[in-house]
TrEMBL record:
Pfam families, A to Z: DUF4440 (PF14534)
Domain of life, source organism: Bacteria
Entry coiled-coil feature ranges: none
InterPro entries per record: DUF4440 (IPR027843), NTF2-like_dom_sf (IPR032710)
Source organism of the structure: Bradyrhizobium agreste
Keywords: Signal
Gene3D superfamilies in UniProt: 3.10.450.50
Protein's name according to its UniProt entry: Nuclear transport factor 2 family protein
Signal sequence range: 1-26
Domain (DUF4440): residue spans on this chain: 35-142
Length: 150
């Protein structure tokens, strides 16, 4: 079998194209995995489920509210599940996910409504959210979250 320069060049290009396609596929799989974790987090917030929230958050969590209050993991989960308010709805609109190595940057527009247990008053929230997720082993964990009022 005779191999000419053209065939060698084409085969080299094909192998190179496959090598570059693999990271794109991995990023896509990671983005999908992060998207599933973000949705699980949203559902856990609505349900005020401490076990689910705990499983989704990194031990090093820094959770910042639009008021400027910053909570660690234990404080966030305690306050999110204390029953003082109940989420009637939370919508994450126009999410974007960018995976950079073992980190994912997630942004979205938060629209929420909650009911206060003390007086039944309904409160709406309109926020811009930035989440940072970190791949720890095979799982993505929420490492930090920041909110800005809109």
């Amino acid at each position: 079998m005779t191999i000419n320069r053209r065939d060698l060049c084409l085969s080299t290009l094909a192998v190179s194209a496959l090598a570059f396609a693999r990271p794109a596929l991995a990023a896509s799989a990671d983005e999908e995995a992060v998207a599933k974790r973000v949705e699980a987090f949203r559902l856990a917030q609505i349900a005020a489920d401490p076990k689910a929230l705990g499983a989704l958050c990194a031990e090093e969590l820094s959770y910042s509210h639009s008021s400027g209050k910053v909570e660690d993991k234990a404080t966030f989960i305690a306050n999110a599940t204390d029953g003082k308010s109940k989420f009637l709805s939370i919508e994450y609109k126009d999410p974007t996910i960018k995976v950079v190595g073992p980190t994912a940057i997630v942004r979205f527009h938060w629209l929420g409504e909650q009911e206060m247990a003390a007086d039944g008053k309904k409160v709406s929230t309109n926020l811009h959210i930035l989440m940072n997720w970190q791949k720890q082993g095979d799982e993505w964990k929420l490492l930090s979250r920041a909110a800005t009022k809109l």
